[in-house]
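Before any further analysis, we paired sequence with structure tokens, yielding the entry below:
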Amino acid sequence: MQEISNKVLKDNTIKSYDLKQKTTVDNGVLKKNIDLSNQYDTCVLVFIGDWHIGTVDFDINEAMRVLDYVLQTPNARVLCLGDMMNTAILNSVSNMFEDIAYPQEQWKVFVSLLKQVALQKKLIVTHTGNHERRVGRNTGIDPMEQATAALDVPDTYAPYYADSTIILKSPYTKSGKFSFPIITHHGDSGNPENNAAINQETLINAIGHTHNFKAYTKTKIINCNGKRVKKDELNVVIPALGGGQYGYEKGYKPLNKCPYYAIEITTALNPLYDKNNKFNMQKRVVLATKSISILNQATTKSKQTCIKEGIKEIDKNVNNVKTKVYGKILEILDILEKCGMQINKDLKAKLSKQILEDFKNKPKTSKRSPQKIECNWLNDEEEREI
């Protein structure tokens, strides 16, 4: 680095600013590793956020049931995505007089709810949401930073992004371990993929904030140790609470009285991996996951409804394919006929009739929109041949 000549005078003002610059810590991104590889080969990640404690929508008993599941599940860990408190204050968008508890009581409720989770070291990250941030902008005091201090887990405080890596035991890697990068942020849009800019190797991007539930995968090609590989990211937006009367004014429908999203993660062998194909960009070891319902156990009726919807979708796709095949056969027959070949007219009439019947009997498209959640994520650990 080029030395500064004595032509630029370093007076007391510059010295003071230089000292502030050197001693100020950039806490924009919290980075941390959670090594569970000496205990577990699976881990349950429970994302919570947008509880809006203090509004009429929030159900404290459901929140206690979610946290009770965490406390009773040894390998469960919590990632808190912010907006846990509604913190309506003077001149904020939401009306402070519509909350059933003022910010101080909301803060106490949050600390009381998370006390045992923090005590058992099950809290990975605690984000500040835009609702808590409004207090910080007006007073310089961040309620979430104060809460993590009160819970004696200041190392979980992340006002903006958190780059957390869960390390699990795995029988498929040389090291016997599997690294699982997760990027979390409270969210300022409906696109969790923005998180990936922090770490291109992230396997899960999670946000809240938008009051819309999403869970989907997206395949990307990244550079891993000089080799281009395919990586599937799971992108999650947790189902936010309505936010009381403020939420209704915005047209937000409460999706959950205690928003959360829980998934179990572990390692698996990738069925798409081909070690004999040097151009194959798949990794041999991937992460497999499954969603976990903590509060809402499926009833027999709901299962049967889901099965019927699935059968309708399958039947619709089968008929669509049949109709396309019949249509292509008709096109081929027309071409052959133009070339001088004699074609059975009864065959063409039968095919045309079948296409018409399939079209008339085509099942109506289901109004339900099932979530598509795939289960394979790539891992960048070294593989062990077995």
Summary: The helical segments are 12-23, 60-72, 103-119, 130-139, 143-150, 244-250, 300-338, 345-360. The two ends are 50 Å apart (CA to CA). The CA atoms of residues 62 and 296 lie 10 Å apart.
